[in-house]
Amino acid sequence: MTSINGIRKSGIAGAFAALLALSAQAAEGPAVKMVPEADVAKLPGIAFNQKLADSLPASIKASKTIKVATDLTPPISFQNEAGKLIGIDADIASALGVILGVDVQMTNVGAGAAIVPAVLSKRFDMTLSGINDDIELEKQVDVIDYMYDATTIMTIKGNPLGIKSMADLCGKKVAVPVGTFQNRLVVAASAKCTTTPIEIMSIPKMPDVLQAVRTGRADATVNGYATSVYTTENQTGKGVGLQALPDVRLAVGYLGMLVSKDNPQLRDTVVASLQQMVDSGAYETIMKKWSLGPLAVKTVKFNDAASMPVD
Predict the structure, then answer these.
(1) What is the pLDDT, as a whole number, of residue 310?
(2) Res 105: pLDDT
(3) Is 216 exposed, middle or buried (0-12, 13-18, 19+ CB in 10 A)?
(4) Residue pair 83/67 in contact by the 8 Å Cβ criterion
(5) Which fold has domain 150-251?
(6) Which residues contact 301 (CB under 8 A, 6 or more apart)?
């Protein structure tokens, strides 16, 4: 998925990330009030909880609105043919609105590189965008770990180059989103190449990354496992003509929602609300709806990246 991690706020890298964020802001979509679909609204556990509503920060209780940043990567968050925002995150966001008795407004910020700055700048209260959690990211923001994921390789359909591992990417063109965990994974893999390094194509938006592979400009991309498998099975958007390599599962870890470190009230309220969804079975039903039941967590934690194995 478009899984942004550890965007550093210093030097040239920080300036580049800031420019990308400003560019994305100019292209971002409207704020959309999330209303649960009928199949979500009827789930047990998707019901108003006064205690949790009372635990929200005073500013949110006053505005009765939680502002959420997202970017588009199916099945986590994407648009259907009518342009409606759908996916796991859309279902979870709408459920949170019911549980907490507030409007949850989601905004597509246009590019993954804008996700972390969206919270750091205080333009948004939190993100719901399938972000890979890691220790570096946790130094900047609090990360609510709400599902598992891994990383895999995507190629053109049929895998004509016979790619089977990260080592097979040496000497090949690999497209990855700017500033992402997957970008850093490819950089690390390239450093291990004994002959020709990987030619890395850093591209701001994930749909354009997929387009680069399907048009032959790139030989492969390294992407979130859930997104890659879903794209392969459903051939959505610019993923048409691509395939994931499901036998390649790297960097197994969490996907997380981001909240500012100075907003522990919101973090703890969201954690408790998600746990209500988990305990009632609503959360697992939503995950299964999008064919990702095996990636469901049993306990919602935050800043838990250190507990995951390191590849």
Answers:
(1) 55
(2) 98
(3) exposed
(4) no
(5) D-Maltodextrin-Binding Protein; domain 2 (3.40.190)
(6) 144, 145, 271
Q: In this predicted structure, what is the pLDDT of residue 21?
A: 46
Whole-number Å distance between alpha carbons of 297 and 306: 16
Residues of the chain with pLDDT under 70: 1-27, 236-237, 309-311
Asked if the domains at 11-148+256-300 and 150-251 fall in one CATH topology, the answer is yes
Residue 25, pLDDT score: 52
Report the C-alpha gap between 16 and 81 in whole angstroms.
Answer: 33
- Overall residue count recorded for the chain in this entry: 311
**Measured between alpha carbons, how far is residue 148 from residues 23, 58, 242, 295 in Å?**
30, 31, 23, 5
CATH of 11-148+256-300, one of 3.30.1050.10, 3.40.710.10, 3.40.190.10, 3.40.50.1000: 3.40.190.10
Q: Can you give the pLDDT at residue 20? A: 46
CA distance 255 to 134: 9
Task: Show Cβ contacts of residue 220 under 8 Å, excluding neighbours closer than 6 positions.
Answer: 153, 154, 155, 161, 163, 169, 172, 173, 174, 175, 213
Sketch the domain layout of the chain as residue ranges: 11-148+256-300, 150-251
